[in-house]
Amino acid sequence: MLFLAVTLFVVLCNISLGLITLFKNPKSASGILFFILSIILALWAITNYFSLQDLPPETILFWIRAVMFVTGAMFAVLYLLTDTFPKNSLSIGRIRLVLVIGFILLTQILSTTDLVFQRVEVNNGAVNPIPGPAIPIVAVNFVGFLLLTLITLYKKNRSSIGLERIRLKYLIFGITLTFILAITTNFIFVVFLKLTSFVALGPLFALILVGFIAYAIVKHRFLDIRLVVARSVSYFLLMLIAGVFYASGLFVVGTFITKQPNTSTNLITSTILALIIALSFQTFLRFFEKLTDSIFYKDHYSPQLLLSALGRIMASTLNLNELSTKLLKELVTQIKISGGYIVIKHNLSPIKIIAVGVEKQVQFKEEEIQLLIRQAGEENIIIFEELSESGIKTIMRENNLSIILPLVMEGESMGAILLGGKSSGEIYSEEDINLLKILGPEAAVAIRNGLSYEEIKRFNIRLSEEIKSATVDLQEANSRLKTIDKLKDDFVSIASHELRTPMTAIRSYAWMALHRSDVLLSQNLEKYVTRILISTERLINLVNDMLNVSRIESGKIEIKPEPVDLILLIKDIIDEVYFSKSEEKKISFMVLEKQTPKVFADPEKLRQVFLNLVGNSLKFTPNGGRIIFDFFTDGRVVETSVTDSGVGISKEDLSKLFNKFSRLDSSYTAAATSGGTGLGLYISKNLVQLMHGKIWASSEGLGKGTTFTVSLPVASAEVLKDIEKYSVAPKGEVKGLEPVAI
How far apart are the C-alpha atoms of 200 and 49, rounded to whole Å? Predict the structure, then answer.
């Protein structure tokens, strides 16, 4: 019974492991060959069991030949399996494959004839098979394919590193130990020593190979079915405990309580036990899943949670170094990788390499990095174990790299993530690979955003430096302009003072020449002296205007405000200054006298303002025209308007009126009988602003006259209190008041 139980256990283990591997890798040559090998081992256990039973010699001979038939393909299939490792595909040529299959068939055919075993002799219960002349062919099959298998594994072991080498060592040791023992006990002892006592141990030796492969599956993910194994073990344990619990319950109740095996109490007991099992099934299932995970899957992580954490990292920062370091650190920590690199390539900057978890950063050669990035850009992912021997695999081997994950966005390669082996010595599972494939495009987008951010930062730095340089240049230029402006003001002030003295003398002498009765002038001479007088007056006016502008812009003009009666001021200007000119052009003045409060202003400066306004109106109003003075007040300000019936101003020219040296190239200036400096209105605007007032002009258009309006604060206690809040700033600007709207 023990021999039967061992045989059944071996058969069950082999078939289960073979089916799991096949279902996990249905298109893999390694998975298919491993399934075939597991079936051969199971059949070997079955045929070996029957060959050792107490049966007639003819029947024993049949089962011995069956053992030889089954094992005839065993070593050849093992050789083909090792040839596929770790690429999961056969590398031998068709001719060699045909020769292998032909030799298998030859051995199997011979094993069914008298050429391998002629007969069976039974002496005193001992079974002695008699070998035939073709037994050396069988020996060549067994020993030859076993040697080819070991040589193949040895060569691959020399060229492998890391996890690949670990898995090969387990495979080499399991195969060597299993088949040396099997050949010794089942072939050498039988053929040469005529001993069959140890044949029963053959299937047990097969468990050594199965055990090492299973350990490689569980510990080092050979063929990547560890999760299936873990879940199978957890369900097996659950079913075993449930069965033991149920049977024990029935045994205790039937033996010690009711002492009657067939009573209604047993039915009730069975129902209660079934309910207990049903209610506790999920609890025990979770417990055993956790238990088996801790054994088979102790480094397990949740891909969803890891992807979520990586997504938060990629969304939380645009800093390329911080992003790459955090991303790589999370990967290395959660998947338990020995270390890794992120290689970032950018056209405008050198290749950047960020390392995490490596004891000593590898100094990659430029050509190696270029090759890795170029190769990565052509693949979805590069796995060391799946590569054939090539330059890229040599680079990965020398630098202990297991995974290359390309960073590609819209066909543009931006680098790659280079990962070393797992700290546990295991290979990357399909779950790991799928997670990395999902991560690749998302990481590429994040890296691209980081590169864009780096470009923006570099641009901002360059822009800041250029702005700083330009600001320094502007500051120097402004300083020079201020110096030049001061020199200009000084020159204008000095020149004006120096010019006014001779101009005043010229005007005085010209006036005396015209008005002294004791000197008679000819008609032409009187005409010339008159022109000299007029031109001198113009020059004096120009000098005065330039002096006023210089004082205003340098902040040296002095304002002495006091209450002023506007109506009296206007009448005084009309009567004393411009009466003669208005008579010459037959221009009439009209003052619309109203109850108008006094304004708070400097009378001399205000007189100068209205002299400029009235002078402009006289200059541009044709003969027979009129000038009207009107007043309006709201209790806080008084608006004085000077309206003429002159040529008017276009809307385009209104905005130019109060600019320095403004001269309008229109019928407005063409209608003037005498030229001007272009400074009168500019001075008037600044003087009005210094007196906390406003000035503006309006016209309905050419030929419809022009209105100049001056607004000044009323000389009341309340208004004066508000005016005290304001102070005169340098250059004649008034703090707290809006600029004059023209």
Answer: 7
8 Å CB contact between 175 and 37: no
Distance CA 72, CA 68 (A): 6
Token couple for 571: 């009448």
CATH architecture classification, 558-732:
2-Layer Sandwich (3.30)
User: Percent of the chain at pLDDT above 70?
Assistant: 70
> pTM, whole model, 2 decimals?
0.41
Both tokens assigned to 189: 């002892």
Same fold, 303-449 and 558-732: no
CA dist., res. 73 & res. 625, Å (int): 131
C-alpha dist (Å) from residue 196 to 59, 199, 446: 16, 5, 70
Domain boundaries, the chain: 2-224, 232-296, 303-449, 558-732
Per-residue pLDDT band at 728 (split at 50, 70, 90): very low
Report the CATH architecture of 303-449: 2-Layer Sandwich (3.30)
Q: Which pair of tokens denotes residue 542?
A: 């120009």
pLDDT at residue 219, as a whole number: 47
Encoding tokens for residue 526? 């009187």
For the stretch 160-195, pLDDT in tens is 665 566 667 777 777 777 777 777 776 677 666 666
Tokens (6 digits) for 447: 């890296």
Q: Is 482 exposed, middle or buried (0-12, 13-18, 19+ CB in 10 A)?
A: exposed
Hey, is 281 helix, strand or coil? Answer: helix
Give, in order, the Cα–Cα distances in Å from 70 to each of 143, 146, 152, 470. Answer: 16, 16, 23, 91
Cα Rg of the chain, angstroms? 56
Given a contact cutoff of 8 angstroms between Cβ atoms, the answer to whether 702 and 667 are in contact is yes
pLDDT higher at 34 or 674 = 34
Lowest mean pLDDT among 58-67, 185-194, 583-592: 185-194
CB 417 within 8 Å of CB 438: no
Kindly list the distances between the CA atom of residue 200 and the CA atoms of 4, 7, 181, 206, 374, in Å, as whole numbers in the listed order: 11, 9, 12, 11, 58
3-state secondary structure 153-186: HHHHHHCCCHHHHHHHHHHHHHHHHHHHHHHHHH
Q: Please give the DSSP secondary-structure letter assigned to residue 660.
A: T
Taking phi first (over 0 means left), then psi (-120 to 50 degrees means alpha), and beta for anything else, what does residue 731 get? left
Kindly report the average pLDDT of the chain as a whole number.
76
* CA nearest neighbour of 34 among 18, 12, 16, 19: 18
> What integer is the mean pLDDT of 673-687?
73
The helix or strand, by DSSP H or E, that contains position 344, with its residue range, turns out to be: strand 340-346
First-residue to last-residue Cα distance in the chain: 119
pLDDT digits (tens, 9 = 90+) for 238-274: 565 665 665 666 556 555 555 555 556 666 666 676 6
Q: For residue 117, what are the β-bridge partners?
A: 131
Burial call 158-191: b when 16+ CB within 10 Å, e when fewer: eebbbbbebbbbbbbebbbebbebbbebbbebbb
More confident residue, 135 or 13: 135
Asked whether the predicted pLDDT for residue 287 surpasses 60, the reply is: yes
Section 496-520 average pLDDT: 74
CATH number of 2-224: 1.20.1070.10
* Helices and strands (H and E) in the chain: how many: 24, 14
DSSP annotation of 337 reads B
